[in-house]
Amino acid sequence: MQNLNELEVENLRHLIGGHATVINKLQEYAQACTDPQLKQMLQKDVQDAQNTKQRLMSFLG
User: Fold this and answer.
1) Residues 18-27: tens digit of each pLDDT
2) Which of 3, 6, 40, 49 would suit a FRET pair with 13, their CA atoms being 20 to 30 Å apart?
């Protein structure tokens, strides 16, 4: 993998931070949700966002 320049690293960190925010919000929504089907969908979205965040973080390492 090529070395990332400063702008690319900054953009990755911004995307990772955005995913962290989305994960937190989706977790809160899922906890507050009373509809089982919607709750399951939100939990899947949390997992998807966590996976994407991890993939983005792998570019920094």
Assistant:
1) 999 999 999 9
2) 40
